[in-house]
Amino acid sequence: MYSEWRSLQLVIQSDRGHMSVLHSYPSNVGKDVAHAVVRPLGQGLNSSSTSNESILKTDKEVKWTMEVLCYGLTLPLDGETVKLCVDVYTDWIMALVARRDSIPQPIIKEPNLYVQTILRHLQNLFVPRSEYAHNQITLCLRVLAAVQKLARESANMTRETWEVLLLFLLQINDTLLAAPTVPGGLAENLADKLIGVLFEVWFLACTRCFPTPPYWKTAREMLANWRHHPAVVEQWSKVICALTSRLLRFTYGPSFPPFKVPDEDAILIPADMDNDCISQTWFRILHMLSNPVDLSNPAIISTTPKFQEQLLSVSGMTQEMIQHPCLKQLPQIFFRAMRGISCLVDAFLGIARTNIIRERLPPYGISRPRSDSAPPTPVNRLNMPQASSTMNTTPPHNRRMRSVTVTKATVKTSSGSTAHPPKVTHQTSTTSPLSSPNQTTSEPRPLPAPTRPKVNSVLNLFGQWLFDAGLVHCRLHNGMNRDGNMTASFIQILLSYKSCITTPAGLDVRRKPSQISTENMVANPLFDANEFPDNYEAGRAEACGTLCRIFCSKKTGEEILPVYLSRFYMVLIQGLQINDYICRPVLASIILNSPALFCCDLKGIDILVPYFISALETILPDRELSKFKAYVNPTELRRASIHILLSMLPLPHHFGTVKAEVLLEGKFSNEDSSLHDKPVTFLSLKLRLVNVLIGALQTETDPNNTQMILGAMLNIVQDSALLEAIGSQMELSIGDSTHTSLKSHSRNSSGISVTSTGSSEATTPDSERPAQALLRDYALHTDTASGLLIRSIHLVTQRLNSQWRQDMSISLAALELLSGLAKVKVSVDSTDRKRAVSSVCSYIVHQCSRPAPFHSRDLHSMIVAAFQCLCVWLTEHPDMLNEKDCLIEVLEIVELGISGSKSKASDQEVRYKGDKEPSPASMRVKDAAEATLTCIMQLLGAFPSPSGPASPCSLLNEETLIKYSRLTSTSKNHFRYFVLDNSIILAMLEQPLGNDQNPCPSVTVLIRGMSGRHAWTMQLYHQPRGSRASQKAFVPEPHPAPKDDVGIKYNVKHRPFPEEVDKIPFVKADLSIPDLHEIVTDQLEVQHEKLKNLMAKQIVYENALEKISEERLSKTQFPDPVTECIPPPPAQEFQTARLLLSHFGFLSLEALKEPGNSCRPPNLIALDSTLAGFFDDIGYLDLLPSRPFETVFIFYMKPGQKTSQEILKNMESSGHVQSHFLEFLLSLGWPVDVGKHPGWTGHVSTSWLINNGNGSEGKEQEETITPEDTGGGIFNGEKKALYYADALTEIAFVVPSFMESSTDSSESGLASQEAETQMDLLPSLLKQTPLTLELFPNHSENLSNSQRLSPTQKSKKLPLGRTVPPLGPETKVIVVWVERFDDIENFPLNDLLPETSTGVETTTNSSTSLRTTMSDKDVPVIFIHPLKTGLFRIKVQGATGKFSMVIPLVDGMVVSRRALGFLVRQTIINICRRKRLESDSYNPPHVRRKQKIVDIVHKYRNKLLEPEFYTSLFQEVGPKSLNP
Questions:
Q1: According to the 3-state scheme, what is the secondary structure of 736-793?
Q2: For the residues of 1239-1271, what is the DSSP string, one character each?
Q3: Would residue 1444 be called left, alpha or beta, if left means φ above 0 and alpha means ψ between -120 and 50 degrees?
Q4: Which of 608, 563, 571 is CA-nearest to residue 382?
């Protein structure tokens, strides 16, 4: 910078201005003269009289006296002479500030000339004395204070005076600070004040009389000789930070995150210093310290002239100077310099760090921005061990003094720094590092400012120092030709490192790490045993960490020079190596500052994957991290490691068999016998990554870290399953990827190389991998998706019922993981599925059995979540309940949740339902158990229903059924309404439907229960189903025709008695009765004769009648229609409602009686449908959904966009969005037509429609529109939307698009006014009749254009007759696709919230109209950023609440294109479930429906006496009229 200018050091050395004429006389003469002359002057200054006019009147007198004063300042401090000299001079130099009577007139007339002379004389005071050091310190401080006041307040100083003043300060600093430090000496006591005054006066000179280049060059050269004093680097850090704060303020404006410094440091910069002066001063002060990396090399620091001068005066051996005691402070000084540079880097990146330099830190530590979960941020600086101070290893373009552009930062963080105990014995500080008090929270890390400088610009400023500092004491291979004083270059270190690793000695070190000692290090090619780099680790760690932060701040699409990338990768390779010697501060610093390193699209970054895996194998499976506790907080270190692991998990599947050119285990030597010759593919690293993930989960104790690991497990399992499902085909990358011919890879064990399996063993010193044995046990079972799924289930279920069941946040995350695993389409054995179900059941039993004091809302939320997880497993795998033991276990858990106890304990007798007193853990638990029971009884094996997945209920209602019946009237009064068990409403239509041909007892029933609305048509048959198939209409069978010619006819005389009777002889008794002729008299004879005649006539008459009858019979047909028996015709009408209720036992007297001592109504109740408002309430009940519903609004943000209009317009054309965005949309759900869709559409005004019989002739053309034509805007919820549903939830995905009316302020104002009016009218709409569930055509025709806006507009209203039931807390999530990651900070969430109206935020009651709105902090937002590799980076904000983070997607995760849609959808489901758990007012759907049914019963119960009720069953309910 100043190569063309000469230094003033020779001028300073040759200047004799501090010599007096008395120095030519003997010492006693000068002493006496000084004592005699100074005393009157001092007494005159100290006198209390008002007139203390100086006794010196002429110029000659003053000059003579000054010669004496000059000599007096060199005298010993045993008397008052020196003090009086100081008093006089400090008084006289104030002539440039204000006139005083004590100042001689010649000085007042020519103050600049005399002050210049005085300053030269005052140099004598700062020459160290051997005695009375305390007095000298006091006098020196007085002089420095006077000089400060002179520089601050003087307005008349000329340039010459300023230059003399600067040279005076440089001279006295060099006199005291250049020599080696003496403990307790003058330099040690004055160093801080000396350098502080120098910088303050220098800044004042820059403001009023900018120093010329020679002065800057002199200051830089002299300051390099003082760097062994801690105060020098400390003060330099203070002033450069204060200058940087001012520089950023005017360069980047007030919107840039302010770089706050303490007020005592800020005032060092004069307020009147203009912007150009600040820029020039800042750059010069930055380089005034020369190369800070020299501080790590005692050989450079000890080669200054004063060091050599002292050494030569003691002994003639130059090498011993390196061992000087004062150089033992260099590690601390080096660290403080790196910390200061780290602050500057953070300031330029927009990561505001407050009050870092003023912290009195222990000598070592790793700094990080304090942002709760933000990892520590080490500061780093380039270091060149044993390198010449003039050597420059930076590329030529890095040496140009380029101006720095600073960018706007929108994230502000305070600073938090920690320190670890020093490893040098002379240090006494033992402070352990403690991160910020809220370190265990999980808030997002601070992002750099969106308008920050480019990485190249920052590295042009600080790159040389940081790269060199990151390689402090890294040495070359012993076997290579090298210069011992040369810093290793990238290729040299890499070559030596590779050859070391592939040699047998290197392999021996890898296998026996515990045997590494200092003796082994002698042969180590990377380190020198004589100069083991133990105490410079902190500074190197700061440098490495700062480099990581710089490269992690890379903007999307930004190009970084390859030379910077290569040097950065060299630093990381050295810092991450664990095979020979683990430098824990450096390793921790790199890990803590690299969470986003694999998310920034750095070219070639993937070559570092094996190194990072090796580092994570050292950190994550170690439960205690005891050897890292001295440097960092173990929890933060593990969290940063997990973030890195999350970003690397998709790489093996994504790149597959692609081979990296430079890897730790790659072939890089000529020794073919090496075990590490085989090239490493990314796929071969999968097993190591999975093992690290499992090991981390087994050893993790922090709740937030555990949840991140659980999210990662679902990511890798789902990705593996999808990859296997598509035949192991590699997906192509999105952008500029060089891997264009990737082949599918094998999934068998042969894909794992020897290297990867070998590296999973314990290869670190002191056996630092305690979990490796566990990992090897599962190595053979986690290579396939099914094996990984089984292992995940086993691990999670085991820990769920042991360590995790007391922690709510981990329990919820584990249950969410199990729910996600249930949806992974991989075939596993039924025993593993039952294990998951059984573990959830055991978890519920344990939580319910906890003592009463432990029962709280949070505990019950955990139980509710467990029941929800159980429902997911049962609906995804319904065949599990085919096994008796599983069915019994699940039903026992349901019983436990509903009643509070099981009917059968382990060895107790069965307690029946009627004998138990219900005492559930809480009503929420009971509701969850009832929902599970409903799921088992009604959903298992019955989803999707005939209505499709959009509706688990029937799409029929009274209107539809009447329309298709044989009734001429369309009145709903034809239905009979009954309520069963106070929970089920039956609507019975006794007339058969029009398509029924067989006359039989038929009844159509609409069953409205807690689970929804179902329609059943029941018919009564008396024949089995098989015979009914061929049954015809009933026709009676005719009699057969008579056949008279059948058989033989015999003429037989019929007798009353057999003939044998006549042959029986009479006995006396037979003769006792006389014959008739024996007793007949004449009179009787006449009568007898008369009777005989009558009998004859009668016989003749009867024979005639018989003949006539026979003749008539012969003429009659057969059969005789008059006498023939004919069966009655079949009944055509039945009182089927009565029959159905009777057959099911509901018409018994017991069912109609109200239970005694109970407020419950009877089991059967009749409802009076003629009451006003009845059908309104029935329609209201139908509007209550039977499943939870979620709403997702998806936006697309192009680079640089900041307004809502720009973002909404992106959806107009497919040319405005990336093709993968459209693919992502279709992976979330399937398109549905809003006008015909019976499920949730994203707005209550168009959801859950039935009876929509509108024609679709005019819409056929619209249905042909594909999402590629509109960029996704077609799914704005107006005509189409994306929809997903399973048995337990439904989601509507809406893509809001721009509409002109949304920008018209007057129109939107009118619309909002109309909306309020509409809301006020809603209570009255409840009384209108009749109401239906569909839109009123006559009302929609009357809507104005402003009322027919998109569903995403605020003015969207409900149609008349449609009310909004209280649907609980609004569960909506925003998903944003951002092309440029930095634009996340500019996403206009507040402006877009009006576009996300769902209608759920509107609630009404009978008296008021309330509207609740969501704040932007309450809305969860998932940002998706596509990387050039074809992967996707995730950022989640607003998804943390009372129950911490939600999985599977967590902030910083990288996911594959295959799993993106599934993971986003699963995260949305979990976010909404968490929100419902948090809500105090939320009721499950079945509870809301049950409450409404109870309300209907209370309002419309038909209170009939039993006789009246039975009579009503036999009466018709409506006008009876059948179609002809």
A1: CCCCCCCCCCCCCHHHCCHHHHHHCCCCCHHHCCCCHHHHHHCCCCCCCHHHHHHHHH
A2: S--SSGGGSS--------GGGHHHHT--HHHHT
A3: left
A4: 571
Contact 348, 561 (CB under 8 A): no
Contact 618, 769 (CB under 8 A): yes
Residues 6+ apart with CB under 8 A from 1236: 1249, 1252, 1256
Considering only CA atoms, which of 404, 649, 439 is closest in space to residue 550? 404
User: Is 1451 within 8 Å of 1404 (Cβ atoms)?
Assistant: no
| Cβ-Cβ contacts under 8 Å for 1208 (sequence gap 6 or more) | 1195, 1296, 1297, 1298, 1299, 1302, 1395
Residue 1146 CB coordination number (10 Å) = 17
For residues 59 and 65, what is the distance between their CA atoms, to the nearest angstrom?
A: 10
From 787, 785, 786, 813, select the one nearest 799 (Cα to Cα).
813
DSSP 496: H
| Distance, CA of 152 to CA of 23 (rounded, Å) | 34
pLDDT digits (tens, 9 = 90+) for 758-792: 333 333 333 333 444 444 444 445 678 888 999 99
Asked, as a colleague might, if the bond just before 679 is cis with ω within 30 of 0, I would say no
Query: Nearest Cα to 617, choosing from 523, 692, 721, 671?
Result: 692
| Burial group, residue 665, by CB count within 10 angstroms (0-12, 13-18, 19+) | buried
The one-letter amino acid code at 123 reads: Q
| Six-digit token string for 1480 | 């105090």
DSSP per-residue string spanning 13-37: HH--TT--GGGGS-HHHHHHHHHHH
- Under the phi-then-psi rule, with left for phi > 0, alpha for psi from -120 to 50, and beta for the rest, what region is 578? alpha
Start-to-end Cα distance in the chain: 110
Q: Is 900 left (phi over 0), alpha (psi -120 to 50) or beta?
A: left
Q: Which residues contact 790 (CB under 8 A, 6 or more apart)?
A: 781, 828, 829, 832
Question: Is residue 1388 exposed (0-12), middle (13-18) or buried (19+ Cβ within 10 Å)?
Answer: middle
Distance of alpha carbon 363 from alpha carbon 511, whole angstroms: 35
Provide the token pair at 1333. 């569930």
What is the radius of gyration, based on Cα positions, of the chain?
50
Q: How far is CA 1227 from CA 56, 265, 718, 821, 824, in A?
A: 97, 56, 14, 18, 15
pLDDT-based confidence at residue 661 (cuts at 50, 70, 90)? low
Helices (H), 964-1081: 1025-1028, 1068-1071, 1076-1079
**Structural contact between residues 506 and 330, judged by C-beta atoms closer than 8 angstroms:** no
Distance CA 190, CA 30 (A): 28
Amino acid at 271: A
Residue with tokens 């008739």: 1076
Residue type, 1007: I
Q: Which two tokens stand for residue 1428?
A: 């050039």
> Which amino acid, one-letter code, is at 402?
R
Distances (CA, A) of 498 to 526, 579, 1414, 1454: 11, 12, 58, 30
What does the DSSP assignment read for 71-116? HHTTS-TTSSHHHHHHHHHHHHGGGGT---TTS-HHHHHSHHHHHH
Token pair, residue 436, equals 């910020």
- Per-residue pLDDT of 739-767, as tens digits, reads 433 333 333 333 333 333 333 333 333 33
Q: What are φ and ψ of residue 364, in 5° steps?
A: -130, 155
Q: What is the pLDDT of residues 613-646, one digit of tens each?
A: 989 988 888 888 888 888 888 889 999 999 999 9
pLDDT for 436-472, tens place per residue?
Answer: 323 333 445 667 877 888 999 999 999 999 999 888 8
DSSP state of 947: T
Helix H segments across 470-576?
A: 490-502, 504-511, 518-522, 537-552, 562-576
